[in-house]
Amino acid sequence: MERELLSPEDLDAPQPNSGSTRLRDEHSDPFRVMDLLRDALRFFKLSGNVVGRVQTRIVMKGSGYPLTYASSCLEIATVLRDCISMHKKMYLNGVLHRDVSLGNILIMNNGSGRLIDLDRAKYVSSKKQALRPVTAVTESEMKALRKDLKHLGLNLSEDIRRLSLQYFQEGAPISAYYLNGLIRSFFNDKSISLELNDLGWPNEKQREEYMLLPDFTKYRARDAFYQTGTIPFMSHQALSGNAERRNEPFMHDAYHDMESFFWVLVYVCITTQGPLGGRRPEMDGNNELADQVADMFHQEMQYLGKTRREYIHLEEPFKSLLSCLHPSFHDLQPLIERWREILSFTSSNKGLDHDIIHHHMLRILEERISELKSKSPVETDEIAKEKRAAREKHWAKRRRIPCLPSSGGSIEQQQSPDHSPSVPPMSRRARRRSSTTSTSTSPKVKRRRTRRNI
């Protein structure tokens, strides 16, 4: 006779030999979990409908290499540009990554970059108008802004004034205040005449994709999931929960991912001894470099957020950061300095530059890539092939599972001589179990020792 399955109502009904009569609804009751477990066990015991589970593992061929295996400074800049370009494309379509880290940036076989792992990404379908149409800016607003800028001693082109009014719909006073802070942050002489390109702002064609931006302010994260990411690479605001803006709840946006890209770049330039050089030996000792790396990447969240805020906003801590860079990455130091300048301004000023931060990052990366290409000789196909072969050989030594041959050759040639080609290497538990059971042939001793090992 088949046993009947218990319904949820039966679980709440009194059971024989049971100390409780109903599931408690109070979440604060410490015995509620025990009641749930006891009733669940009773349900499976009486129903006889326990489903067997099978652990399954899928082994796939790896794709790409970590950023620490870059063959040159040019390749690092190229990979970061490609990943930020992918991030921008996802962002404009309503997807925010929220977990940019060293493990989520890959170098593909052709030298391009790829951003992976969308486990913590969030998606919104709603949009907000970031820029008004050009026709919406009136002549009276332009005259008022020109008057305010003249009073502040700023000489800005008409394109700059019009674009600022497209963004700041509040009018001329807010636009003038923002532009004054922007010029003071990036230019020593604020009386010079500036054009649109001097500020790095997009032209009329480029700004079309920024007219409508995803509205992540309507996103409601679950409790304890507002601050997400990999701690060593999270932005200072994400780590501290936006402590400097106490009246505003923390909301993850594109800026925080751009700062995560920055810390990935800094980590690679500090902890590795040049392209394909591996980990710096100084990192494994008790010295000033190891202590500063621990200070920059391996603290508790609240302390790490405060420390990173100092690196972003203060000159002296940032100079100490630059002194830790490996000499092989000297060509990337100007990129790090410009990246930090943009982060320092956009983290404190929620304005146009904060919303078009992808444009700024791609701009400085493209400029640095062009400079590195002009310095380095033209790389032939043969040199590129040699670099890829060296990287593949270096990466194969670090893999836990031997790689299958890509073309020709046999598996025996790629496996370690310590293991037989036909027998896969044993796990640690299997080796311990075999060594324990081989010492005695008695069944009792074998069972007892196996139980002890488990």
TrEMBL record:
Gene3D superfamilies: Transferase(Phosphotransferase) domain 1 (1.10.510.10)
Biased composition (Polar residues): 407-419
UniProt biased composition (Basic residues): 444-454
MF GO annotations: protein kinase activity
Biased composition (Basic and acidic residues): 375-393
Domain Fungal-type protein kinase: 51-129, 220-269
UniProt-listed InterPro entries: Kinase-like_dom_sf, Pkinase_fungal, Tyr_kinase_AS
Spans traversing the lipid bilayer: none
Residue span of region Disordered: 1-26, 375-454
Name recorded for this polypeptide: Fungal-type protein kinase domain-containing protein
Species per Swiss-Prot/TrEMBL record: Amanita thiersii Skay4041
Native organism taxonomy: Eukaryota, Fungi, Dikarya, Basidiomycota, Agaricomycotina
